[in-house]
Amino acid sequence: MSEPKPLPLVLAEPRGRKKPPRHLADLTPSERKDLLVEMGLPGFRAKQVATHYFSRLADDPEQMTDLPAAQRAELVDVLLPELMTPLRQLEADKGTTRKTLWKLFDGALVESVLMRYPGRTTMCVSSQAGCGMACPFCATGQGGLQRNMSTAEIVEQVLAGARALDRDEIPGGTGRVNNVVFMGMGEPMANYKAVIGAVRRLTEPAPDGYGMSARGITVSTVGLVPRIKQLADEGIPVTLALSLHAPDDELRNELVPINTRFSVAETLDAAYEYFTKTGRRVSIEYAMMRGINDHAWRADLLADLLNERAHGWVHVNLIPLNPTPGSKWTASDPADEREFVRRLEAKGVATTVRDTRGQEIDGACGQLAAKE
């Protein structure tokens, strides 16, 4: 195996890139008010516009009849500029899984997925256009990083799903987004400020935010240790998902190159610290790859490493790999997967195998954008 080069903690975006338009979801309630006053508009209108956006899920100015007709267009232009347009939508599972390819204002492409289950709906959102973490089995990682997304661009993916549910466009009747997982394109912790901003907007009570529970939000990371520690001190009880994929440094250096910067032990220590500070059980994400990381001895090693720190502090989520076309990486044999589960459970580690939704619609994030 060739030795991967260490990655910087935060990868710089290209210089001279224009920023996304400033949007209500980028701003705190007081900042929204100040912006309107600065533009010569009544500050109290900010709350009315926020009510339309977060509570009524309106995106047509004509629906905002409590705003004066003479100011309506200007208020919407200032606070609700268009952030993204849908390029393609693909559906699976009789319409209850919907994947959207979005074009951002500068032409960058990102993906989000709505997944409706009995009694709940989950939105999987992107936090970056592309990704700089360079994990070789990941479609997004192969394209490199284009740019970070803004807080509002992240929030808008969720609100677009919320509008589709509210308008009864998804089979199952009207509904609401209950869960948000930061598992789309990008490394959320490498765009920390915008991601935390989005979490705050999504959890702030309506009409200042969407008003969902922080416990319904999962933030994933490949293991940016300083950011995991920072998240533990935010006081927001989100679930931390650590994309581990290998229990030994030799293999993880190849699969997750940031491991050359932060070892398996350091990364698990940070995740355990998150658990002790927040009381929130950590999810260990592990993509099962045939003949690569699915050996029985690796299941034993993973269980031992987790149990060394404590019992019951993690839940292992095994992910049957959604292979990208032409890739040498492919999903594990079902018998090997079952043995992996058996060995983890034999050592008392709670384990599930993720539901593989959306394979027929290029379910692995980045596949649709790469094709486009």
UniProtKB/TrEMBL annotation:
<keyword id="KW-0963">Cytoplasm</keyword>
<keyword id="KW-0408">Iron</keyword>
<dbReference type="InterPro" id="IPR004383">
    <property type="entry name" value="rRNA_lsu_MTrfase_RlmN/Cfr"/>
</dbReference>
<feature type="binding site">
    <location>
        <position position="138"/>
    </location>
    <ligand>
        <name>[4Fe-4S] cluster</name>
    </ligand>
</feature>
<feature type="binding site">
    <location>
        <position position="131"/>
    </location>
    <ligand>
        <name>[4Fe-4S] cluster</name>
    </ligand>
</feature>
<feature type="binding site">
    <location>
        <begin position="186"/>
        <end position="187"/>
    </location>
    <ligand>
        <name>S-adenosyl-L-methionine</name>
    </ligand>
</feature>
<feature type="binding site">
    <location>
        <position position="220"/>
    </location>
    <ligand>
        <name>S-adenosyl-L-methionine</name>
    </ligand>
</feature>
<feature type="active site" description="S-methylcysteine intermediate">
    <location>
        <position position="365"/>
    </location>
</feature>
<dbReference type="GO" id="GO:0070040">
    <property type="term" value="F:rRNA (adenine(2503)-C2-)-methyltransferase activity"/>
</dbReference>
<feature type="domain" description="Radical SAM core">
    <location>
        <begin position="117"/>
        <end position="360"/>
    </location>
</feature>
<dbReference type="InterPro" id="IPR048641">
    <property type="entry name" value="RlmN_N"/>
</dbReference>
<dbReference type="Pfam" id="PF21016">
    <property type="entry name" value="RlmN_N"/>
</dbReference>
<dbReference type="GO" id="GO:0070475">
    <property type="term" value="P:rRNA base methylation"/>
</dbReference>
<feature type="region of interest" description="Disordered">
    <location>
        <begin position="1"/>
        <end position="26"/>
    </location>
</feature>
<keyword id="KW-0698">rRNA processing</keyword>
<dbReference type="InterPro" id="IPR058240">
    <property type="entry name" value="rSAM_sf"/>
</dbReference>
<dbReference type="GO" id="GO:0046872">
    <property type="term" value="F:metal ion binding"/>
</dbReference>
<dbReference type="Pfam" id="PF04055">
    <property type="entry name" value="Radical_SAM"/>
</dbReference>
<keyword id="KW-0819">tRNA processing</keyword>
<keyword id="KW-0411">Iron-sulfur</keyword>
<dbReference type="InterPro" id="IPR040072">
    <property type="entry name" value="Methyltransferase_A"/>
</dbReference>
<dbReference type="InterPro" id="IPR007197">
    <property type="entry name" value="rSAM"/>
</dbReference>
<feature type="binding site">
    <location>
        <begin position="243"/>
        <end position="245"/>
    </location>
    <ligand>
        <name>S-adenosyl-L-methionine</name>
    </ligand>
</feature>
<feature type="binding site">
    <location>
        <position position="135"/>
    </location>
    <ligand>
        <name>[4Fe-4S] cluster</name>
    </ligand>
</feature>
<keyword id="KW-0489">Methyltransferase</keyword>
<dbReference type="InterPro" id="IPR013785">
    <property type="entry name" value="Aldolase_TIM"/>
</dbReference>
<keyword id="KW-0004">4Fe-4S</keyword>
<feature type="binding site">
    <location>
        <position position="322"/>
    </location>
    <ligand>
        <name>S-adenosyl-L-methionine</name>
    </ligand>
</feature>
<comment type="function">
    <text>Specifically methylates position 2 of adenine 2503 in 23S rRNA and position 2 of adenine 37 in tRNAs.</text>
</comment>
<dbReference type="GO" id="GO:0051539">
    <property type="term" value="F:4 iron, 4 sulfur cluster binding"/>
</dbReference>
<dbReference type="GO" id="GO:0000049">
    <property type="term" value="F:tRNA binding"/>
</dbReference>
<protein>
    <recommendedName>
        <fullName>Probable dual-specificity RNA methyltransferase RlmN</fullName>
        <ecNumber>2.1.1.192</ecNumber>
    </recommendedName>
</protein>
<dbReference type="GO" id="GO:0019843">
    <property type="term" value="F:rRNA binding"/>
</dbReference>
<dbReference type="InterPro" id="IPR006638">
    <property type="entry name" value="Elp3/MiaA/NifB-like_rSAM"/>
</dbReference>
<keyword id="KW-1015">Disulfide bond</keyword>
<comment type="similarity">
    <text>Belongs to the radical SAM superfamily. RlmN family.</text>
</comment>
<dbReference type="GO" id="GO:0030488">
    <property type="term" value="P:tRNA methylation"/>
</dbReference>
<dbReference type="GO" id="GO:0002935">
    <property type="term" value="F:tRNA (adenine(37)-C2)-methyltransferase activity"/>
</dbReference>
<feature type="active site" description="Proton acceptor">
    <location>
        <position position="111"/>
    </location>
</feature>
<dbReference type="GO" id="GO:0005737">
    <property type="term" value="C:cytoplasm"/>
</dbReference>
<dbReference type="InterPro" id="IPR027492">
    <property type="entry name" value="RNA_MTrfase_RlmN"/>
</dbReference>
<keyword id="KW-0479">Metal-binding</keyword>
